[in-house]
Amino acid sequence: MKRGFTLLKKLPFPESRRDSRGISAIDNNRTHPPFIPPHRGDRGGYSDDRLRKGFTLVELSIVLVIIGLLIGGILVAQSMVDSTKVQRFVGEVNQYMTAIHNFKTKYNQLPGDSTRFTNPGDNDGRIEYPGSGVAGEWTRAWAHLSESGELQETYTGGTTNLEGSVPESKAFKDVLYTYIYLGNDWGFLKPGQLIVIGKHINTTWNALGGISPASALSIDTKIDDGLADAGSLTTHVLTTSTYQTNCLKNTSGSPYNSGDYAPENVDGNCPLIYNINDLLY
Predict the structure, then answer these.
(1) Does residue 60 fall inside a structural domain?
(2) I need a labelling partner for 221 at 20 to 30 A (CA). Which of 13, 119, 132, 183 fits?
(3) Residue 117 belongs to a domain
(4) Residue-number span of the structural domain to which 144 is assigned
(5) Tens-place pLDDT, residues 36-78
(6) Distances in whole angstroms, Cα of residue 25 to Cα of each of 21, 30, 32, 74
(7) Distance CA 200, CA 187 (A)
(8) Total of domains in the chain
């Protein structure tokens, strides 16, 4: 041995040592690409049933139950909204009937027909329509009710435009109240003092339907007898479809002398006519 050098003993290379995975120490020192499992659709690749698993019948049943509950909740909510509208509308009608009754009791005249207030009528016991002067009593009635304090709202009583001249329902959008006298039988309508309830078809007439048949039936049942062609509360007798679209069924006559509400027509629209003679006389 030369001076300054140390002879090292040759050690055996640990090639034969393998771990539990069968990988040798040499393999551990090599760089391997990451393991990427074959696509489950690859031929010859591994198969895992869980990757192909769909919904079970139990899971589908639960989903269907949840959907059913959501739909049921929506329908119940809509029914509650409709019921609230009907209740509010009935309250409006009762308010106006009370105001008209109190006015007649206090002054022994009808609002609009009275001679004691601004723009007086002719006190003939009739609410004339249409036109200006005495014939404008049908809108002036609401101005007299305001002026007398029977109604808190202010109405102008104008005859050329119903907006601001007569009450508008807070339950049904654009539905107005007017007050007229009918002198003769007209279809199933009877003579007397009438409250006409509907949307205006032009600036001076509000016979256009604005209440669904189902709601109209509910209102009629609460106030009167639930019949579209009888009693004090009815729908209109006009046969023109634009006035009361899909409101009635089983109709006959022109103007109508009979007919039933059609609550199954969700797209229908009804006007209402309230004969208040029995409340006044």
Answers:
(1) no
(2) 183
(3) no
(4) 84-108+140-280
(5) 555 555 555 555 555 556 678 777 788 787 887 777 667 665 6
(6) 11, 9, 14, 68
(7) 21
(8) 1
